[in-house]
Amino acid sequence: MSKREILVGLIGNPNVGKSSVFNRLTGAKQRIGNWPGKTVEKKEGWFRHRGFSVHVVDLPGVYSLSAISIDEAIARDFIVEEKPDVVVDIVDASNLERNLYLVLQLIELEANLVIALNKIDLAQSMGFEVDHEALSRELSIPVVPTIATKGYGIDELKDAIISSFENPQPPKPISYGEDVEQAISELVEAFRSDAELSKYPLRWLAIMCLERDQTVASLIKKSSIYDKVKEVLGFER
Amino acid sequence: MGKTRLVASFAAAVGVLYVLVGVLEVVLCVATMDIPLVPQDLFGGFSIAVAGSTLLVGAKKLKKTLWEGAGFLLVGGGLATAFGVLYLLIIGASALDALIVGEAYEALADLRAEIALLPLSASLAYYGYRALSSS
Amino acid sequence: MSGKSFEALIPERRYEVASKITQRVVKKRETRPSISDALDQVFLHKWLGLPIFFAMLWAAFRWTFDASAPVSDAIDAFFSWLGEIAATVPNEVLASFLSDGLCGGLGFVLVFVGPIFFLFFALGLLEDSGYLARAAFLMDRLMHRFGMHGRSFICMLMGFGCNLPAIMSTRTIADEKDRLTTILVNPLMSCSARLPVYVVVAGAVMGQYASAAVFSMYVLGLALALMMALLFRRVLFGGEPSPFIMELPPYSKPLMRNVFIYMWERGVVFLKKAATILLAGALILWFLSTFPWGAGVENSYAGLLGHAIEPLLRPLGFDWRLAVALFFGFMAKEVVVEALGILYGVEEEEAVSAILANSITPLTGYAFMAFTLIYIPCLATIGIIRSETGSWRWTLFSVAYLLALAYIVSALIVALGHLLGFG
């Protein structure tokens, strides 16, 4: 039997009920501190399920992972650097469209994702019927409907975390259109030759590079393939 | 329709009562006068007058749409109820406090009109809540 | 090529994908307007919105300070009882250390537990119900004019209770410049610890204008905070406060579970941080005012210190006693009153008032109140500024600018008072 601890990152937009999910998952076993070198609160908790010990890190509530604010940088760095075994994205069912933006970015990051489709009761009372199975098929990610405030779906979420850990399935990349995809694949080809960069999800690196993300840009500037990348980026001018 | 109109009149009456109490508290504070049941309380007076005004607006809106008026009744009534309960709590706290410090405590001195009006505001808040959640 | 840069194109494509998927998995039924919509009609009402907000705040304040009184008094009573027992220890120095230093100090720190936990309970309720987001929304425009963020307002308001949790609460402000501005001006919000000082001094020297004088301190603090925020924005940080894009989450019944966890987490952080810093401060205070042993207060280290600082404060009309009181006050502002008690050689607050009335003029008293309001955040607040800004530079800056501001404002009050013919 594997005794390994599962590291889970809990992420989601602000106001999706993330702290309720966190409290429901971990109960009283929590620790609150600061992110190293940052002044942002870091909450961690633990729970046991089916013989696994699960360590949950509550990431700051963010709308995107574009790393503009401290919160976004913290969430992104955690996923990129700590490589959590499972990332649980809490998605507000009553506001699916906006929440999907973050989901798409997590897919780019090739995180081992589980979606907790929270507030389904609220969505229903607002007249939204969210087909969670269809959502799961669209994204090829396990989706667990929850009502964290009532504790509904929490056990299923725990199950999903464990099975995602046991059978990790990298999410299928979602196409952003031919023009973008072509630039992405050119960049990915260029990155592949650099050992340092190959540590990162290459598709994500390429997308960030195209988006002129500062952190990724400085990473690439230092790498051996900077000239090649400049060439690819030159296409857009 | 008759019932809604009845509720509207009731809310208006309670709203006027709260506004009166609130204005009186402020006036007494400015004039530094003491009367029983209505203390000198600048901010408290303002607050409860606001709750009363919200009920008045609610009463007016109730005649047009039940849904909108109910929101005002819930907030205005809820606010007044919160203050009533708070003043009760403070009496309890002061009594407990006096017990700890070992002084005599006159609960009557801290009784105030908002506590007496508590059932009225609570019933309006409850009506607003029911109207909203059943609609 | 599309002619658009990838920088703009990629987010756009993400939105498109999100929108397509949403259309495929979500079905919308026609519904009647929700409770949240009805409540927003009230809470964001043109005229009633702000007054309702102030009424809610007032309720939260009464709750925080009045309903929590038994907790504070019970803790206070317990420690004074403990102190009395400790005072019976035969060794005089040890007895003084145990009763005045340890019990007095520890009790003094823990008295804050009541209001802090109550405050966070109230805030937890407002936050969890979804109301706090509306409050920030209401205040955003006003705050923006003063170079602050809509969120800042809530942090400033909390400062009326205690600057410590108020500064901690700035974590909710995403932009670093906005956050730093809010942290720096927060000590100007007159916290509850300063009230005893106002009450004692104003009661002694302001006569029938006492309550107006006390109230004016709160207004002065708020006005200075807004002015300084504007100044910092213009001079130090530049740029506009980041736009306050906020969504209003639907209202929900606050969950007691969440509210208690909210209160507990933050309360415990306060306990840990404040207790270590404040307790150490209290022990230092005891040491300085007690040694050299048996020399009396005037010749104690504290007294010597007072005489040393006095020349600096002379222009404001403060004597060495007031100087010592202010010096100790930086540990925690209530200590100013206690220090006045020790220094004027009496224990009862009423008696301090009587002696104060004979020894300082109303003008000096008022300047002293203003000085107490502005100068130096208390030790615990300094600690929290350090840990929240993560920088000693900003911490020292806040101490320095507040000292300078206190001096300038008090001097202005004195000068203006003389000009108008008050003694």
How would you describe the overall organization of this protein?
The complex is a heterotrimer of chains A (237), B (135) and C (423). With 237 residues, chain A is α/β, with parallel strands linked by helices. Chain A has ten helices and eight strands. Chain A has two domains: 5-166, Rossmann fold (3-Layer(aba) Sandwich), CATH 3.40.50; 178-236, Helix Hairpins (Orthogonal Bundle). In chain A, helix 7 (178-192) packs across helix 8 and helix 7 runs antiparallel to helix 10. The longest helix of chain A has 15 residues, at 178-192. Chain A is globular, with a radius of gyration of 18 Å. Chain B is an all-alpha fold. Chain B has one domain. Chain B has helices at 2-31, 42-62, 66-101, 107-110, 113-116, 118-134. In chain B, helix 1 runs antiparallel to helix 2 (42-62). The mean pLDDT of chain B is 88. By secondary structure, chain C is an all-alpha fold. Chain C has a domain at 277-419. Chain C has helices spanning 6-25, 35-43, 49-67, 69-86, 92-110, 113-129, 131-145, 150-161, 163-168, 176-185, 195-205, 210-237, 256-290, 301-313, 320-329, 335-343, 349-359, 362-374, 379-389, 392-419; one strand at residues 26-28. The radius of gyration of chain C is 25 Å and the shape is globular. At the A-C interface, helix 1, helix 3, strand 7, helix 5 and helix 7 of A face helix 1, strand 1, helix 13 and helix 19 of C.
